[in-house]
């Protein structure tokens, strides 16, 4: 069973390396020194595999690395479980997999909720005309407007919603989706982990 602990430790180390590489890619002008080149050679093949999943690129934000990190976390959990329980249960593996996928989706929802709340606060403080005053807000509005109207359209009943109303509606829908999804996933993984 110590082999599973060792493998889990290797997966955890690789997760840390991938996370460090992702953070370093966000820093402009970091250049490609020896450490960054090493991390790129080690982590890019794995992280680039997830670029195929285009649905994880939302409003210009790339969530594919989050999926890669969550799968590494799930692999580490499975390996740790195998070392602790001395037995492998298929239901536990399925529960961990579903839990990991939900963690990625929930993270995306929370990120979108935070973006929309920040934008709503700006609308309340400066009014809806603030988006034309700032190039940053104009770009943010361009990126998230599809999301806002996608989630608020079913509740518009054929009317065109004001931007503020569409923002509030989208926030409420996303929060309810996150809460409901969390409850369903918790119940489902609880049932599956017993098999």
Automatic annotation (TrEMBL):
What stretches pass through the bilayer?
Answer: 6-32, 53-79, 91-122, 166-192
Output the Gene Ontology cellular-component terms. membrane
- Keyword Transmembrane tagged: yes
* Entry keywords, A to Z: Membrane, Transmembrane, Transmembrane helix
The entry's protein name is YggT family protein
To which species is this protein native? Treponema rectale
Q: Domain of life, per the record?
A: Bacteria
Q: Which InterPro entries match?
A: CCB3/YggT
Q: Does the keyword Transmembrane apply?
A: yes
């Amino acid at each position: 069973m110590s082999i599973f602990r060792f493998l889990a430790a290797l997966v955890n180390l690789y997760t840390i390396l991938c996370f460090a590489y992702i953070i370093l890619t966000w820093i402009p002008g970091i250049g490609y020194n020896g450490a960054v080149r090493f991390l790129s050679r080690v982590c890019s093949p794995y992280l680039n595999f997830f670029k195929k999943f285009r649905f994880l690129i939302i409003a210009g934000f790339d969530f594919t690395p989050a999926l890669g990190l969550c799968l590494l976390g799930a692999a580490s959990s499975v390996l740790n479980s195998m070392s602790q329980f001395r037995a492998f249960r298929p239901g536990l593996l399925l529960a961990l997999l579903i839990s990991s996928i939900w963690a990625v989706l929930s993270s995306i929802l929370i990120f979108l909720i935070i973006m929309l709340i920040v934008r709503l606060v700006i609308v309340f403080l400066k009014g809806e005309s603030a988006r034309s005053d700032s190039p940053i807000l104009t770009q943010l509005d361009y990126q998230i407007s599809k999301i806002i109207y996608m989630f608020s359209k079913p509740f518009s009943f054929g009317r065109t919603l004001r931007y503020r109303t569409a923002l509030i509606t989208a926030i409420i829908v996303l929060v309810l989706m996150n809460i409901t999804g969390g409850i369903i996933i918790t119940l489902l993984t609880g049932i599956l982990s017993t098999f």
